[in-house]
From TrEMBL:
The organism's place on the tree of life at top rank: Bacteria
Catalytic activity as recorded in UniProt: an S-(2-hydroxyacyl)glutathione + H2O = a 2-hydroxy carboxylate + glutathione + H(+)
Protein name as annotated: Hydroxyacylglutathione hydrolase
Pfam families: HAGH_C (PF16123), Lactamase_B (PF00753)
EC number: 3.1.2.6
Residues that, per the record, bind Zn(2+) 2: D58, H59, D130, H168
Example of a GO biological process term: methylglyoxal catabolic process to D-lactate via S-lactoyl-glutathione
Length: 254
């Protein structure tokens, strides 16, 4: 089984989970159908299933065209009326088998009120949409900061070797902010240098082990991160208070 990033729009990734033996693939959050169709044709593959994390258009915009192109494909998604054509509405703690993958459904609202992720325990894969990014996290739309904070704590409980497949290429910008928060962190600097030296534009997947070292939104108990937050309006070292200040400062970061 191979996992391949299909680029879409300016910074989206539609993750293709490929079963070469059967000539099939599954994809996560197809905001645009055309690159998925082209990928399938180029690699002589047929789309078997679509996994959706949330309702935003850059994650579901390709659904109708893909259904027309592959009428037998099966669509999984959260219980949200804003998402059309879902064959199987999945719930928190539910387990689904898609090809060789057995996914546990994680409920992680915050970015949106119904956001879910797909976690494959045996292979330690997490398809987390816009909740967690490398060195960052999603903005809050119709969820709450409290929910997003709790969702990131849920991810922290996964094995550190878990591979993080998020839906956007935001790593460089996120690392720049992380370095502002924690300027003496050598691991952040190492990651920045690695990106600048790499000929490849895709920085993903990350691992939870790396994120626990570089991602300030997962490190609200770290003294340097707390120091930054306290200097920018936090009134205590409470994890949620630190998180709220970090998210507000990241919203303003250029």
């Amino acid at each position: 089984m191979n996992i391949y990033p299909i680029p879409a729009y300016s910074d989206n990734y539609i993750w293709a989970i490929i079963d070469k033996k059967l000539g099939l693939f599954d994809c996560v959050d197809p905001g645009d159908a055309e690159p998925v169709v082209q990928f399938a044709k180029k690699n002589n593959l047929k789309l078997r299933a679509i996994l959706l994390t949330h309702h935003h258009q850059d994650h579901i915009g390709g659904l109708n065209q893909l259904i027309r192109a592959y009428p037998s494909c099966f669509i999984y998604g959260p219980d949200d009326p804003r998402i059309p054509n879902v064959n199987c509405i999945v719930q928190e703690h539910q387990t689904i088998q898609v090809g060789r993958c057995v996914f546990k459904i994680l409920f992680n609202p915050g970015h949106t009120s119904s956001h879910i992720s797909y976690y494959e325990a045996q292979q330690e894969l997490l398809f987390c949409g816009d909740t967690l990014f490398s060195a960052g996290c999603g903005r809050v739309f119709d969820g709450t900061l409290e929910q997003l904070h709790q969702s990131l704590h849920l991810f922290k409980s996964l094995p550190p070797t878990t591979k993080i497949y998020c839906a956007h290429e935001y790593t460089l910008q996120n690392l720049r902010f992380a370095q502002t928060v924690d300027p003496n962190n050598p691991v952040i600097e190492e990651h920045l240098q690695k990106i600048h030296k790499s000929p490849h534009s895709c920085t993903l997947p990350s691992t939870l082990e790396d994120e626990l070292l570089i991602n300030p939104f997962l490190r609200t108990d770290d003294p340097e991160v707390q120091k930054y937050a306290l200097a920018h309006g936090a009134t205590s070292k409470n994890s949620l208070e630190i998180f709220k200040v970090l998210r507000e400062e990241k919203n303003l970061f250029k």
